[in-house]
Known about the structure:
Strand content: under 5%
Shape: flat
Largest sheet: none
Low-confidence stretches: none
Amino acid sequence: MAKKSENNEEQIGFHKGSLATLVKEREEMMRILQIVEQLMQMHIKELKELGVDLQKQAQESTAKKLKGNKPIEDVLKRK
């Protein structure tokens, strides 16, 4: 009976340790994501100051991609 209890305690310790490690990894990933977001915002700001309209470019890019696509009805029709 003691072996089963020890094994159970080992499993609990393993899972708790894993969770503690994963929490630290998640925190580090969030920190890196915040840094990347800050850098992106800095570049967006500089481009705006240089007169580049990123929203307009994104809309034009999306329009070009959609322009050549078939309507969904044509895609779904079987010959």
